[in-house]
């Protein structure tokens, strides 16, 4: 049974750096129509887990959404409800919007309360919206850990910050109270230009490195005084010399375990308290985990988690009743080293789903399409 991974719905044209995470409304609705027409049954993860104990001839699928974007309420929820389908949302409590009222969604458009142009899908879900979706039986909410943060994990400097969009997560660490708003506002002001960027990774798969504040301040001052800020190599070389004086520190075993426990136990506790339900499933942000975080997730009481195919060592371990959830990415884009290409074909998502089902025709169709895009990238770059 395929378990599908979505993120955002309907925001592929929004002014947001990560809009390539979004599936277009046309693609998503056509996919939902396909599921209904072909008699697919959608399951929650409790049902998925139960189904693993028996065999069935039914066509079944699990639809999941990562991160808890507001558009899951604005677009995904009404469309799933319209077609009598259901999905699971993995959320991070630190990204929950503090607003208290349900915001407009497609239901309000269809009921003639507002015009479609009044919908504002960028942002993150609030507790009221999560509770409403849960209460209707259309969405099941589970844990995506507490923070979804990236952290430095070595003293190797790889870049210098000067507003690059791919480092938007640095603002999450510097100004965590603004995390729910990062999709809809510029947060460059929360990260000083010149800040050194060290090797980094996912919070639950690493031991955190803390650069010395003296080194960071030196880097920021050097950047502000340097007329030629384009020569990053020279700046990094100077900082590497300073590292000998200000080497920074790593978190201890005790500090790392405490942080992991916060991510796994506290997110579970908050979600259970706010939603008045048991939280049993975990989605590792970005597929980041290690031996310690997996063991702690079992201790916390999760029944299963979304192991990454790229890091499947733990899947091979005997984890007893603890199950691994393998998922297939659903997207409206084909990505190349040069850019993310939106695919106009309204049946692209259906074809991608058939690819994930192992249909050879659709696999070849996708590969040919990607090859054409790669060739065009080379010609026109």
TrEMBL record:
Sorted alphabetically, the Gene Ontology BP terms of this entry are: carbohydrate metabolic process
- SUPFAM superfamilies membership: Glycoside hydrolase/deacetylase
Listed GO cellular component terms?
extracellular region
Q: Which molecular function GO terms apply here?
A: hydrolase activity, acting on carbon-nitrogen (but not peptide) bonds
Q: Which keywords does this Swiss-Prot/TrEMBL entry list? A: Signal
Q: Name one Pfam family in it.
A: Polysacc_deac_1
Where is this protein localized, as stated in its record?
A: Secreted
- In terms of superkingdom, the source organism counts as Bacteria
Q: Which residues form the NodB homology domain?
A: 59-175
Enumerate the Gene3D superfamilies for this protein.
Glycoside hydrolase/deacetylase
Q: Which PANTHER family match?
A: POLY-BETA-1,6-N-ACETYL-D-GLUCOSAMINE N-DEACETYLASE, PTHR34216
Designated name of the protein: Polysaccharide deacetylase
Report the source organism.
Gelidibacter algens
């Amino acid at each position: 049974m395929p378990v599908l991974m979505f993120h955002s719905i309907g925001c592929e044209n929004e002014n947001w750096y990560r809009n390539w995470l979004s599936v277009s409304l046309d693609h998503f609705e056509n996919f939902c129509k396909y599921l209904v027409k072909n008699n697919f049954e959608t399951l929650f993860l409790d049902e998925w887990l139960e189904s693993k104990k028996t065999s069935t001839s039914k066509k079944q699928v699990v639809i999941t959404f990562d991160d808890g974007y507001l558009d899951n309420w604005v677009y995904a929820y009404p469309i799933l409800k319209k077609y009598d389908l259901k999905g699971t949302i993995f959320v991070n409590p630190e990204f929950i919007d503090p607003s208290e009222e349900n915001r407009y969604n497609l239901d309000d458009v269809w009921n003639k309360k507002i015009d479609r142009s009044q919908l504002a899908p960028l942002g993150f879900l609030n507790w009221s919206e999560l509770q409403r979706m849960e209460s209707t039986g259309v969405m099941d909410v589970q844990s995506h850990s507490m923070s979804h943060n990236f952290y430095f994990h070595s003293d190797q400097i790889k870049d210098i910050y000067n507003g690059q969009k791919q480092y938007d997560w640095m603002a999450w660490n510097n100004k965590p109270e603004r995390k729910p708003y990062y999709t809809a506002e510029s947060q460059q002001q929360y990260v000083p230009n010149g800040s050194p960027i060290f090797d980094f990774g996912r919070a639950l798969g690493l031991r955190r490195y803390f650069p010395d504040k003296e080194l960071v301040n030196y880097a920021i001052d050097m950047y502000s005084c340097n007329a030629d800020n384009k020569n990053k190599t020279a700046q990094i070389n100077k900082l590497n010399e300073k590292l000998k004086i200000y080497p920074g520190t790593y978190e201890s075993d005790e500090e790392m375990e405490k942080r992991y426990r916060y991510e796994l136990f506290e997110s579970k506790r908050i979600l259970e308290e706010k939603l008045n339900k048991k939280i049993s499933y975990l989605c590792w942000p970005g597929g980041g985990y290690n031996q310690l975080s997996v063991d702690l997730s079992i201790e916390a009481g999760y029944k299963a988690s979304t192991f990454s195919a790229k890091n499947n060592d733990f899947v091979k371990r005997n984890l007893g009743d603890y199950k691994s959830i393998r998922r297939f990415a659903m997207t409206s884009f084909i990505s190349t080293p040069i850019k993310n290409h939106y695919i106009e074909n309204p049946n692209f998502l259906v074809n991608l789903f058939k690819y994930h089902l192992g249909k050879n025709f659709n696999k070849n169709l996708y590969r040919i399409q990607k090859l054409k895009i790669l060739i065009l990238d080379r010609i026109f770059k």
